[in-house]
Structure formats: structure tokens, C-alpha cells
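Narrative progress, year one. The postdoctoral researcher (J.K.) led the effort to move from monomer predictions toward full complexes, under supervision of the PI. The following entry was the first complex the group processed end to end, covering 798 residues in total.
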Amino acid sequence: MAEPLITLTTDFGYSAPYVSVMKGVIYALCPSARVVDLTHAIAPQNIRQAAYFLATAVPYFPAGTIHVCVVDPGVGTERAALYTQVDGQHLFGPDNGLFTLLWRQAREPPLVRRLTEARFWRPVVSATFHGRDIFAPAAAHLARGVPPEELGPLHPHPVQLAVQPAVCTSTACEGEIQAVDDFGNLITNIPAAQVPQLPSLVTIGSRPPLRLPWVRTYGDAPPGTLVSLFSSDGYFEIALVQGNAARQLQVSPGECVRLTWQPSSL
Amino acid sequence: MAEPLITLTTDFGYSAPYVSVMKGVIYALCPSARVVDLTHAIAPQNIRQAAYFLATAVPYFPAGTIHVCVVDPGVGTERAALYTQVDGQHLFGPDNGLFTLLWRQAREPPLVRRLTEARFWRPVVSATFHGRDIFAPAAAHLARGVPPEELGPLHPHPVQLAVQPAVCTSTACEGEIQAVDDFGNLITNIPAAQVPQLPSLVTIGSRPPLRLPWVRTYGDAPPGTLVSLFSSDGYFEIALVQGNAARQLQVSPGECVRLTWQPSSL
Amino acid sequence: MAEPLITLTTDFGYSAPYVSVMKGVIYALCPSARVVDLTHAIAPQNIRQAAYFLATAVPYFPAGTIHVCVVDPGVGTERAALYTQVDGQHLFGPDNGLFTLLWRQAREPPLVRRLTEARFWRPVVSATFHGRDIFAPAAAHLARGVPPEELGPLHPHPVQLAVQPAVCTSTACEGEIQAVDDFGNLITNIPAAQVPQLPSLVTIGSRPPLRLPWVRTYGDAPPGTLVSLFSSDGYFEIALVQGNAARQLQVSPGECVRLTWQPSSL
């Protein structure tokens, strides 16, 4: 059997020692683990961004992978610490909505437990670093074979982010920019299935409406062209060919996006 | 036998989920793999930078290592998807010149194949993310033992970058800044063998010529001194001791560099 | 037995090929190794920052872990190359004080050797990249079973950083900002044990004194509040709830911090 795979997703950044501390804790408890960095560049405290990241990346991992997710502005308060099983993936993280999008897209009903069994934690638990003291060690214990039901009781009502899906009619779609990638591409939350054809106009926030050419892929338009296309994860996307759309349009995640079709074009 | 080693080199950055998606795809197909990050900080679409990176790093890996390289502005267009074998290293990436410098420095004739066998890809191939849909799964299949010749036919004329080697005479050398590292050191493409002694003058672009002291290593001159030396990969280099030469001189990769020797100094 | 764990800590950044080169060297010599990135975002030449990083992260790793640490402004000069064993951890790096804080906090007397046995290095040693030519290969040889005593002779007087511990009286504590994490939290070097209760005033450098509320954890105060608390590694810390204290206060590592207690509050 392959050695246990444990991934890390945090907002800890790359220069502080916190991520390395978690790696040390995991390897010390489960020496055969393979720890895999997903990202540590979630914007500080940005639960929404982390939820999108996890929903996009986690489903590609083999069933049985363990994911430790620490974007945790409420660390040390009364917020619960969670284990959740989603379509064969095992995840650990705070009860703050981090898993909202994964749960929504799950094929099977997700299972959620509250971590209460302190014997799977570090002996002393700090008020500010549960990644080190609770999530990493609990994940390592699971990797060593502790059954999930020993981690704590079922937790039937976890916190969910108030994320609205895009709302579409026959002439318009309203959604939001749910992610901006490192290229500056703007990924909306409007599913490809809701966009049967080229919208006449694309309006971001209160900016003037844009009339964007539709492309299959970036290389279909000359560099510097602002285009619309379907993202690789199946959403309506706005991109600047070989440029940075977010910077050119000054757009940030969370802004509203409105697609409109003129009746004549339907 | 050690478990298969698969490295990743991309321009995807560290905050978007794309790299993690590729890791998931690889681990799902080849659970025993060890995936190794080379870099995800290639500047967007900068094939030249990636070519230098690969030519510098790849040869140090053990023969048999598999490298997945995705800097791919032409994704989804007619550009081919490649597998290439260079001095025992296996590489996957788009046919856009990414492997130019590796091929040029190869000790044995490189072998290039076009990836055509869709049975080694994900069942649905997107127009914008071949890292996930073609390169990562093909690499994972190779790691599982699929012979390279099954991936697709030989591809005798891959795209090559129009990179000129430095041109040297007995009194001058003309080359370019081929890389700027994270310290701000300026690595030219002028090989050490072409620089028998201290040049009298170093001219970058159209800036005023510099008269730079020659050092064996950074610590041989006081902090703040602009020096010339041989880089650890064997090129003429310009550095600012304990400072950032690129920032101080405002130099970017691709700028011309001219070394001149006064006849009297020869 | 689990495969050898070799970690990397450098100031090489994420875009240059140097870290990947070291990974290649290690895997080529020790194909069964698992190479783990700690950080490559130490500020260039910042030995003090690296010393804090290592002292914070290394002790969490399982005994027997090998750590390669390259923040090395004196590379290629007369400075020694070191192996040190600290509480069961094996470390390699330049003799410039990098291990000062690890040595000070060690439970058992650390052992230090000077790397002199060139048979464990690359055949040609450059003047500017000992990470590749000395530290990585020596670490890989140790991982393959070479006993530490073969690496070189004992080195009884390694360089130590002139880092002063915080100085505390019954009414005041003087220390410094020893680290700023990626959240912008200011971690001082004043140990929790020296701070029996809320200081009346906190003075950073020559700024006006601050009267900071004391919290157990960030979530105990509203977003935007400047607070004081104990860091997860046991030091007095100043944070801006859901914000960046370093940016708001314009504070950098190394600045003085003074805590004062009014006699009446004792």
C-alpha cells in the first residue's frame, strides 16, 4: 500500500515557520507520511478563497487522501474543530465554512465530526495555533489507522458560508468573481451550463459593460485582447490574453458579474 | 527500487489551485509517486525563463526522473504536446521551445515524441488546462511503466526558441542577461570559457559602461560593491554584494550585455 | 524503516533554479530520500531570521531528520562548512551563526563538526554555491548511512550570533522584535514566563507608547484592534486582529520593544 498522503492548505504564507512546524508534527507522529503542499498563499483569513481552492483541488486526489486545512481567524475561540469525509477524501479544519463548497458539490452526503478526543492532539493546546496542536496531529493519527469515529462525535450543523450560486434567467445571469488566479484571470461562479451562448454584454460591478469576444482558449485571440471563455473548472471566465485581466480591470474576488443576452441574439 | 520521482515546473503561481490539481491527478494515477515542486514562479507565459530554469536544474536529477513542465500560452491551439527524453531525463510539456536549452546542451541526441495516445490522458480534455488533462496523466502513466514509445510517434522537428549563444571575439563578447535570480544577480549567457580574464568594461543595454572588480565570490568585496564573477552554473555574472543588482541597475532578463577588453590588457 | 527525511531552508527564493538543483543533487545521491521544503523565503542574507526560523521549526521534526540550511553570504570565503547535531536533529550549513538559537535552546550539548572530507562533496566545488556542492551532497551521504564522525573533525568554537536575550526587571522588560510573520504579527523575544501580567505600556523603537488590550487569542477582540498576546511559540506578541500589525505600525524585525508595568499594577 502506498504511504499515507497528507496535504496542507493554509494562509500562513511562505516565510514564517508555521507550515514547517506542522510538517514536523506530522512526520514525528507518522514517519511514513508523504506531506504535500497545496498552497500557503490563501490571503490571510480569507475563508471564501480557501473554500474555492479546496473545492477545486481536493476532488482530484485519490480517495483516502488526508487534507489539513487551516484558515482559522477564530482559532482558540468557541468555534469547533472538524473532521469531515467528502466523497472519500478526509479533511481537517476549523468550523468556519471552509468546506462549504466541497460539501455542496459532494456526490454522497458528507460526514462531519467534531474533534473532541484530546488524546489525538498535542498534550498542550495553544490558543492560537490549532494547525500544530489539533489538526496536524489528528490527521497524523488518522493516517496511522485511528478510525474516524474515534476522533469525536458527529457534528450535524457545521457553519456554512453564505455563498449564493449564480442566478440565471433566459436573458441574464448574475454571479460573482469567485477567484482571481495568478495569471489575473477572473473566474466567476457562473457555470458553463448556464451560458448557452456568447453573452452580449458582461458587466463587472458598476463598471461600464464590456462586449467581449468569445474564445475556446487564450491563444485564439491576439495578445492584449480581453476575452471570455470557459475556465478549466467549468465556469464563465474573463481573461486578458498574455496579460493580467484583474490588474487591467482592477477587479477583486467577490465583485458582482452580470451577463446579459439581447433577446435578438437568442 | 525507489518510488517514481515526478517534478513540476509551471508559471501557475502559488495561490491558484492548478498546481494542486496536477498533484492530485498524478497521485490518483500513480499512488506511489513522489511529486517534487521545482518552481511555479516562472513569469506568466515566459518560455525563455522556463527554458533556462529547466536547463539549469534538470540535469542534476537522477536518470529516470520525470519532469512535467507547463508554461503553455498556446494551450488548446494546434501546438503539439510533447514527451522528450534528454540524457536519461523524461520530460513532458508543450511544443513551444521550452526544452530548447536542454536539447542544445544534451550529451546524447534527444528523443522527441508527440503525445497522441488519448488513452493516457484524462477522458475529457479541456481547451485551457493540458497540465491537468494531458501532461500530468501521461507522466503518471510513464511512471507506472508505460513505455515511452506508446505515448505517441516521433516528432522530428519540435519548435525551438530563437536563442542566440553569446558571440565572442578576441576583444569583445556580446551576449544577454539570460536570468535574474531572486537575489537580483544578473546571469548572462556568456560562458566562463569565453572570459579568459577581467573585461575592461561591461555594458548592459544602452547604459554607461561599467568598470567592475572581478571576484571569486561575493564575500570577496565589501557589501554594496557591484562586482563581476562566474555564476555557479558557469556564466559571466554581475552582482551587488549583499544587495540586489537588478534593482539597483534596473535590469531585466533579455537585455544585451557587452564585455570589452582593451588590447593592452590582453 | 521510513525513508530518510531531508529538509531545505534557504534564502534562494522560489523563481531561481538553485533549490531545484539541490533537490536533484540529493535525489541523485540518495534516491529513497523524501525532500521537504521548509522555506526559501528567508530574506536574502538574513542569518538572524533563519536562526529564528530553524529554532522554531526544527524541534518538531522526528529525531534523525536531516536539515540542509543555506543562508550563506560568506560562501566560498574562509568560513567553515558545518554539520551539527542538536537534540537528535542533524543539520548542515555555513559557520555564520545560523544555528545559534537552536544551540542555545538545546536540551543536550550540541555537537559540531567542520565538513572537511571532500569525498562526500561534489567533485568540483564552486566558490558561490556550497548548497549544491557541499551541504546537499554531505546530507545525502549522511542519509545513506555515512556516520557523522566521517564528515570531518569536531569544531569546538563555531560562530555565534550576538543575539541578546530579553532583559527583564520587576517593572520593565527590554527585548526586540525577533520575527514578523506573514500575517504581520510581531513576535518579540520576550518569553511568556517573563510577562506575569498585562504590561501597562508597550513601546516599539522610538514610537509613542501603546496601551494594548491583552487577549488569549485573536478572535477575542474585534477586527482592527491592536492587541497583545502570547505567540504560539511562547513569546510576547503584538497583533492587529484580522489585519497586519507590521504594516500598520511600520515595524521591522530587530526593533527594540520595551514593556513597562506601573508599580500600582503589580
